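Z., the sequence and structure:
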Amino acid sequence: MKSIKSKIQISMLSVVLVGSVLIGVITALLNAGGIDDVMTKTLGPATQMAADAVEWKMGNYWTALQEAAASDIFRECDPTAPELVPLREEIAQRNGFLYTGKMDADGFSSTGYNYAEEDYFQQCKSTMKPYISDIMNDGQQMIFLLEVPIINDGHFDGVVYGGISADFLSDIVVNLAMGSSGVAYVLDNRGNVIGHREASIV
């Protein structure tokens, strides 16, 4: 009789344990489903918001450089011409660039250095279209360099460039809510983090 009771108790205990495990698995699945649901509802809109913010910001930068590239003074002046200095500074200050300048068709720049071999110059020259560099260190900070070609009579005649702080991407994603504890960040096409609320990670 005792052995039958023991067997019944063991069987009931097994049922309780199996039931508890099943409840635990179901709860975990429901939680995962809830997380997926939250992510589905927040990730798409958050990504779109970030993309729109970047597009708007970049649009302002491109417009300023394109206007400069089309102006007579940028088209006709030597990159280091003194009369370009106040105009370059005014464009930078008004549009949020760290600095702006000109490179001639041979890559000689307003800085006094030659950048003819740099990929960003070569890309802009070969395509004769606006180009943005990969994130890079200009010796003081992490930046992107935007270049717009100067075209005279269908021929490449140099570029107008502007340096922008890479921090603007971090400023955009830092305010994005990704659930209660999620973090938004931006990767480049090589998988490098180029925008994050933790500056040390960029």
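The CA atoms of residues 48 and 54 lie 10 Å apart. Residues 4-32 have pLDDT under 50 and may be disordered.

Let me know what you think.
H.
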